[in-house]
Amino acid sequence: MDTLFPMSAMDAEALQRFLVEAFPDYPPLFVVEEAAGLSVRLRLPKAALRDRPGGTVSGPTLMAFADSTAWIAVCAQIGPVALAVTTSLHIDFLRKPEMVDLFAWGEVLKLGRHLAVVDVAMRSEGRDELVAKAQVTYSIPPR
């Protein structure tokens, strides 16, 4: 792993606090459950899901969850940098997600001086199969 930053600059509790402070006008819809090493795990409660016809979770909801998971994974490594921004997001929708809590696992694949690449896998609660898989690249502002 190519990195210039210390490992795990923020734990799950610090990341959740940062979210609340960074977005004071509306509370975060997801919960940071774990941040360890290069990985994070987030939960998006059923109550926060946006559905679409057919009784499934909307694509934009999954994309926003993937993007948020990647951002949290980057912040876990570099600290509370609110201005890290998405430069690329590729997502594959693999199967119909159920209208239950969703979980996302984000793993930092590369962390450099200016860019970070994060792999995100999403599953419905109680299921082993992936519902979506994303790769997200973030631009890191000068420190």
Please explain how this structure is put together.
- The protein has helices at residues 12-22, 59-78; strands at 31-36, 39-44, 51-52, 56-57, 85-93, 102-111, 115-124, 130-139.
- It has 143 residues and is of the alpha+beta class.
- It has one domain (12-139): Thiol Ester Dehydrase, Chain A.
- The strands form two sheets. Strands 1-2-6-7-8-5 form a six-stranded antiparallel beta sheet. It has a two-stranded antiparallel sheet with strand order 3-4.
- The longest helix is centred in the middle third of the chain and has 20 residues, at 59-78.
- The protein is globular.
- The mean pLDDT is 90.
Largest sheet, if any?
Answer: 6 strands, antiparallel
The CATH topology assignment is Thiol Ester Dehydrase, Chain A
Relative helix content: 10-25%
Which CATH class? Answer: Alpha Beta
Gyration radius, rounded: 14 Å
Give the rounded overall mean pLDDT.
90
CATH superfamily (homologous) name: Hotdog Thioesterase
Structural class: alpha+beta
Main β-sheet, spatial strand arrangement: 1-2-6-7-8-5
Distance between the termini: 20 Å
Shape: globular
Task: Give the uncertain stretches in residue-range form.
Answer: none
Element order: H for helix, E for strand: HEEEEHEEEE
Descriptive terms for the model:
single chain; 143 residues; alpha+beta; Thiol Ester Dehydrase, Chain A; six-stranded antiparallel sheet; 2 helices; globular
